[in-house]
Amino acid sequence: MLVSDLGMNQLRCGRRRNARRLLEQACALHETDPRRGPDYVVAANRLARIYLEDGDPASARPVLEKALGHLDLAAHGVDDVAHAATAFNLALVLQAQADPDGARALFEQALALEERELGNDHPELVSTLVEMAGCVEKLGDVVRARGHLLRAHAILSATHGPDAPDLAAVLGALARLHVACGQPDKGRPLLERLLAIRRRELGSQHPDLVVTLNNLAYLAEAAEDVVEARRWRERALALGEQAWGPDHPNLAPTLESLGALLWAGEHWDDCRTVNERLLRIRMAELGPDHPAIALKLQDLAALEARAGQPVRAADLFACALDALERSPVAQRSVVRKILQNLESLSGDGDEDEDGIDIFALLAERARLLDRRMMTAPPMAEA
Q: What is the pTM of this model?
């Protein structure tokens, strides 16, 4: 396996192109000789992983299929672990090629081989179980996906301890599947463990913790605990502000979620403050004429209408339509959302001093803009 080993040495030295060339040579040397089956299988798996990492599953597939052909010929010194690795890598290829059914069959084959060689509780099974979980989840079987992750969690907890860093990915995915199975309360202690693990690993002020804090808020929302959800969102926001500053675009997802939570609870003043910050962040990032700015302006307008401030609402709706009329990109979906909101507000008695329904007037303006977009030459979508 000298050529294959040289390829891996090149890879470790950062010479990826040389590594790929040498592993291709190794496969060419061994693929026609059944007696060199073990050498070919090792080289093929190494080469296939490079292809996969380079985003080239189409090149990886025939290499691995040939490797499985070697394995199926006869016993030429290839053990179940090597066989399992080949099936596992080919399953990854099929996943990348949007064939989850084919991938699932190969993951199951890999798992059976690993169990036969290593036993049912070996930590080497965890990668296969995690990938199988993702695969069957895509096929819509969240219960089976959760079962695979529960088993991976049990193996890692037994072999590495309940708070090992290796558990992090499993804890997050398992918490999400508990929600998908309608049991968010089971997910919360897992995410709290994950938060503790990541704090020990990264420090208590690391911005990567924002994701876990937001996930805890999501679980609280799924459990209809809005007070707890708000607490987690605000902790995520505070940590993000400390890491990035008060107006950084990275804060936008947390602000969006917090704003939606405040809207649902009819906390209009707090919701206004959050959405005004979002508008400021988006405007600095995208400019004043982007459709996303119009969408945020209409969100603020709808908020003011719900809060009993029709004049402010009308001004913000008008600003949203102004932004869309200036925008170099077309997005009729935003116009239609504004129109839908305006139509729902028309006729509610919100008239100006001359007795004119201001929302009805703005709705007509939105209809004209929608028709103009519909008949205009095609433009780029935002």
A: 0.78
